[in-house]
Automatic annotation (TrEMBL):
Domain HTH cro/C1-type intervals: 20-74
Protein name (record): Helix-turn-helix transcriptional regulator
InterPro entries given in the database record: Cro/C1-type_HTH, Lambda_DNA-bd_dom_sf
Length: 105
């Protein structure tokens, strides 16, 4: 696969749909079975796999990952990071948000 930064978001969704179809078929599942297992509509699955969905919610995508046994792939997408000394406050508590101080001229 080429550099993913070159693709638009709809193109990436289309590529994921094509890849999902391959996973579904290797799991020996029909689109109807995926719909029944996830509670999604058959049309949603069909459009996703054929690249006409345009967009897909994260929650829907997670359901689809679960049904083909790939939910653990989330750890590859956003792996857990080690603690950052930069985000530790003086009182040893982890910062909850980043604030930039205003500099007045």
């Amino acid at each position: 696969m080429a550099d993913l930064y070159e693709y638009s978001t709809p193109e990436l969704v289309r590529l994921l749909g094509v890849r999902f179809k391959e996973y579904r078929m290797r799991c020996n599942l029909t689109q109807k079975e995926v719909a029944e297992l996830t509670g999604l509509g058959l049309t949603t699955i069909h459009k996703f796999e054929n690249g006409t969905a345009g967009n897909l919610s994260l929650a829907t995508f997670l359901l689809l990952l679960k049904v083909v046994g790939q939910i653990d792939a989330i750890n590859d997408v956003l792996p857990e990071l080690p603690p950052s000394p930069y985000l530790m406050r003086r009182d040893e508590k982890k910062a909850q948000r980043i604030r930039h101080t205003k500099q007045y001229k």
